[in-house]
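Page 47, continued from p. 46.
Same chain as before, 452 aa.
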Amino acid sequence: MTREFKTVCERVRERVEPDAEERQTLAAVREELVTRTESAFADLPVEVEIQHVGSTARDTWLAGERDIDLFVAFPPSLDREELEAFGLKIGHTVLPNGTEEFAEHPYVVGEVGGFAVDLVPCYAVDDATAIQSAVDRTPFHNSYVSERLDSDLAGDVRVCKQFFNGIGVYGSDLRTKGFSGFLTELLVLEYGGFRSLVDAATGWHPPVQFDPADHGTTAFDDALVVVDPTDPDRNVAAVCSAANVARVQHFARELVAKPRIALFESAAPAPLEAQAVRTAFADRETVPVAVRFDAPDVVDDQLWPQLERSREGIGDELDRRGFDVLRSVALADETAVLLFELAVAERPRIERHDGPPVHVREHARKFCDAYAGADVYGPFIEGNRYVVERERAFETAAALLGSDAIFDVALGAHVESALEDGYDLLVGEGIGELAEAFGRELARYLSPTPRG
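Result:
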């Protein structure tokens, strides 16, 4: 290990290590939560077990992170409706000002002593392969990691998390499509430390595959495969995009070549103002078009896959119609935006349409009959095929996107409903309107880096 690399990692480790005061506060809040939870289920007609899970339980949390995940485990014989009802009852008792969120089933989130608390019901199954709910795996993950991490490796996990944070790949939500805390822990365990992981990542050749518990099941179609040590049928890294795996490779090489603190710090650009956005697109001599609409009222992990599906569907149609999408991006807060940057502003009024070969008699006849008397050039013959030149349906992308044809492409269900309620179409200089809500995202788009 070079002196520079070691020095940088030591400085980062000092920054992200929770101090004694933070640890004492965590312990006090956890004790209070356990006491509240025990009281909340005391009169229930079933046995319940409390399990503290996640990074604060495994001592891999970062200084300043204030999250506690408390699982309430019910007997596997309990039916799902009762589990949900009992879980919500306990959750609202423990967190009286909490709100309900939904994963595979509802649970309660709230705040106690400055900590964000998730109180999640699950089944106390004997084995992770016997889960009845996806969250049932989490206690097994907790045990697997806790049994294998010592304080040095826990420190390396913190450094790795901070590195992944800095380069923008930390988080398993469907917007980030990055590395979860559990995945980060497994990778550090696999390589025996952060430096070894970084060195290895510089030479990864996807698909990269690991099977920590030697299950023998690595047949997953993903750029990174880490077989869940508690469940042989699950890839812990399934959500990681190929781009984020590539980002880890890129920045691992950067860190080895020139160790520096900046790689452990997020680098959000300054937001652009409207005129700067207009000028930047004008300098590129491209045609920006955007569809803006009210964001569907669904959780992010439902919203973002639907935005991406819609972006891809509209982009494919724009390409098919000859407008040549250079790049595109989905944006969302209270409003959602599908932005497309086009290389072609306008297509001619006439387009070519190739028909069947003349020798394919029946298809050839139908083609000629279809265009007989129509306002087209032809049919005529080129090579061995019939050809017509007909009027193009849409000469500009704006005409296409402003028509009902937008609903003929593959759209996310909630996005389609939102578009049916109405949307704005922004073209050219009109894109500047997006700067107020999305100035930072547009700055990132117009000055792209490997961080994305």
